[in-house]
Amino acid sequence: MNASAVRVFTAIAAIVGATLIGYRLGKPPSSLPLHQSPASVADARPPVVRDGWRMIAAKHVTTRANAPASSTSALPPGPFVGTVEELKRRVQTGDAQAARRLADGYRRCQFFTPAANEAELEKKTLDQVAGGLNFGEELAGQLKDHAARLGVKLEESKVDPAAVYGQELTAQHELASDCTGIAHADAADWFKWYEQAAELGEPDAEVGYWHPALAQVSLVDLNEIGHRKDIAVVALQRARARGDWRALAAIGSLLKIGYFAEPDFFGAYAYFFAAAQAPTQAIDAVPWIDYGLGRVFAGPDTQTWLARELSDLGSRLDPAQRAQAEQLGVQLYEQCCAVAKR
Amino acid sequence: MMRGRIRPLGIIAVAFVLALALGYRLAQRSVPVPPPATPVVVDGGSVRDRSSSVARPAATLPTNIKDLDGRAFIDALPEVERRAGNGDATATHLLFERLQTCARFDDRGEREIREQVDGEFQHQLEIQQRISSEHPEWKPEPQFVIDEDWHQRVLQQRLAQRERCLALTPDQVEGRFAWVRLALQRHDRGMIVAVSGVGQFSTEGAELVRNADQIAALRELERTELARLVESGDSEAIAGAAYGYSEEGNLLPRDLVQSYAHAYAWSRANAGEDTRGMSTLMSGLASRSLTPQQVEQARTEGERLYQHCCRSGFAPSAH
Predict the structure, then answer these.
(1) Under 8 Å between Cβ of A305 and A286
(2) FRET partner for A89 with CA separation of 20 to 30 A, picked from A233, A274, B191, B220?
(3) A22 vs B21: CB contact, 8 Å cut-off?
(4) What is the pLDDT of residues B190-199, one digit of tens each?
């Protein structure tokens, strides 16, 4: 074989070899069968689990600066109406507790109408208590029937009407003392102060703001909704950074409902699972479950409520997804709240 | 001499690189395309299947596309979108309606749909039987007769909706706002009247919060377009505005004075005909929501509207 034939042979061999090497490089790894389904790929390699909230937070937090945390001193004593001016002055200085107190005080006075005299107040209270007890009896009767059908034994509880009346009368006196002199328009504007409390960093308002801000928006200016969404996200991120597990539960609720993106049951499950890692507390710790029936459905404590949420969301995920969400949840809790900052 | 040796080596090097690239390309082409149905739950974005995001060949559409639903709708989607993009009002309306009814779709499975429809059927049947026994002279309109045909028709509609909604991506569903905007920009009368009144095209709750920015821009456009139709004396548009601005209406923000004013103008223009609906709306607003001064203001505005748009009779509605 002469030299030129050797050169040609070498060149051809090099080209064929290069083609084979290129083919090899371009081929997917042989450990994965070519016709593997997405699910089995997921089994073979752990998928990149994306935290749906992170994108939402990034979008909103960049558009709004964080509010400074505020220091608080003892709130002024006495009936609410007498403290309003002092509370407003304190809010001007960035006092979050004062803003929250204004919100709560005004909210409480929203539907207050003063009685002409003591006799009228007593009559009004009596009517309210009687109406409430009648409704309660009716409800109890229905509950008993329902329980009997289900074979559940209910504990009998006796209500003392006189005691209920006494408590309610005291409450009415307090309400009158707090709210007489408060203008209806000011009371109706309670949410403005609650929003300020959330922005100034009052812990309960930070984690609970999203609920009144976004749940009833049919009469709210559409341009206002975007502003509220920004405040809600920033407040929750701040609460989370502070180590408040309730922020995780609130994010779970937001992802489940779909206020920021399409409902994300995987993300919601992960965040609720994260929240469930926190020690049990009474349900009162969750400010957005603040009304009668909501509390009844949620249960007496946070673990009961979170278990219900997880059961509902879990039914929408398959076991593998649940496991991934739980893994993410544990990480989220570790990052947020494992070293209890709160 | 060196040059003479370098030349063939250089050619071989270039050929080597080209061959490497060729091999890589060939290998890439032989990688199978992943199956279209890729459920996306892991990414936390949605629980919906994204199978329809894979392009399908354009289907031949039936002459009457209004009834397209289920898999047939999904298959025809590229063609329906093409037609809507080219200004076909029927295609745009179909697209919007089919996407809108997936916006709050919560899938609980086929079995639950069947059970639910069976329950509804039994309930409706009982009501129909009770009314018939109490009022033997009563005969329902043929399309409202509750029978096995009705039962099957409703069941097929719900199953088709499920099939369609599971196949659409969240982005496609959210894209309905863009289709409405396009239709409004084209002054599509049917769409203007449909979205601004009362009923299924309302956006509320989480959906409203989620899309607040888009909807705000859209409502602005709706109001402008509706006002243009009202100015032209379009009877349906005036009625649409009366209901649209009311408490139950789609137009946001609500404007109860405008609601009353449009109802007033409509009633004036339809004097002598059945105006009970508008009268009920006006009396409700006057007794519950408006002050006497606001009612007076609304009447003045309503009279101005009537004088301006409709005194010489309504413009023909069918454009």
Answers:
(1) yes
(2) A233
(3) yes
(4) 889 888 776 5
